[in-house]
């Protein structure tokens, strides 16, 4: 188990991203890559190592690797209208199998400019396989008490499910459901709770404590999804 302790992002982390956003060219990035490594990339690796060790002790199913769990700062612009070569943020994703796939419940952290993604963390069931999303929707209707208990547990920790990317209409087959909270739940494509991070606090070692506490409070969402996911295993 790693004994890496997160010491905070560098004080030039966000200024670097702002400058990168302005320049957006490889020459500038190469010239300033040492700043990127010292103030963003390596500290995010330390944060990943620190959190993975804490998650393991707490029984939270979020695993990864200090390098492989990070998303690249360089953008894939092949199918994008915005051809800027670099992201305005740096992020990482931890999951049950250690991959960067979010469909089985994940922990995500992002450090970025407010005009884009900003600084935040999230725990989510994201872009699930169709059969899992269908099972979640069926569970909401068949066992509404379990869904509501999960929502109440999140609320007790100060968290609410996001309405991001929610369908405008109730999915086919659930038109007879009338309870407003269940209708909203059925329209979710993803199940996400989000935690905003104060940009002024990213240089503090206390950020690791803050994110661990958030993950613990979000555990009811992961547990709810895992129980449903388990019914699909043959």
Provide a descriptive summary of the structure in words:
With 234 residues, the protein is an alpha+beta fold. Helices cover 43% and strands 11% of the residues. The chain is built from eight helices and four strands; from the N terminus they run αααβββαααβαα. The chain has helices at 13-23, 26-31, 33-58, 130-142, 144-156, 180-186, 206-217, 219-230, and strands at 89-94, 106-112, 120-125, 191-196. A four-stranded antiparallel β-sheet has the order 1-2-3-4, covered by helices on one side. Strand 2 (106-112) and strand 3 (120-125) form a beta hairpin. Helix 3 crosses helix 7 and helix 4 (130-142) packs across helix 5. It is globular. The two termini are 32 Å apart.
Would you kindly provide a brief summary of this structure?
The protein has 8 helices and 4 strands; from the N terminus they run αααβββαααβαα. The protein is an alpha+beta fold. Strand 2 (106-112) and strand 3 (120-125) form a beta hairpin.
Task: Please specify the SSE layout and strand pairing.
Layout (H helix, E strand, L loop, with lengths): L12 H11 L2 H6 L1 H26 L30 E6 L11 E7 L7 E6 L4 H13 L1 H13 L23 H7 L4 E6 L9 H12 L1 H12 L4
Antiparallel strand pairs: 1-2, 2-3, 3-4
Helix pairs in contact: 3-7, 4-5, 5-8
């Amino acid at each position: 188990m790693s004994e890496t302790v997160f010491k905070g992002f560098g004080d030039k982390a966000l200024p670097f991203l702002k400058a990168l956003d302005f320049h957006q060219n490889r020459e500038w990035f190469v010239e300033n890559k040492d700043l990127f490594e010292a103030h963003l990339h390596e500290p995010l690796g330390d944060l990943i190592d620190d959190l993975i060790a804490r998650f393991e002790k707490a029984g939270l199913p979020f695993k990864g690797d200090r390098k492989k769990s990070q998303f690249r700062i360089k953008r894939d612009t092949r199918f994008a209208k915005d051809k800027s070569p670099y992201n305005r943020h740096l992020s990482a994703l931890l999951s049950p199998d250690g991959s960067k796939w979010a469909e089985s419940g994940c922990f995500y952290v992002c450090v970025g400019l407010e005009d884009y993604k900003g600084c935040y963390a999230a725990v989510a069931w994201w872009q699930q396989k169709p059969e899992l999303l269908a099972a979640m929707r069926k569970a909401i209707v068949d066992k509404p008490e379990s869904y509501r208990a999960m929502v109440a547990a999140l609320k007790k920790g100060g968290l609410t499910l996001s309405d991001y990317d929610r369908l405008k209409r109730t999915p086919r087959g659930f038109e007879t459901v009338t309870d407003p909270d269940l209708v909203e739940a059925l329209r979710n494509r993803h199940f996400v709770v989000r935690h905003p991070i104060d940009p002024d606090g990213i240089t503090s070692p206390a950020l690791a404590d803050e994110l661990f506490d958030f993950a613990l409070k979000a555990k009811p969402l992961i547990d709810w999804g895992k129980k449903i996911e388990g019914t699909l295993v043959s």
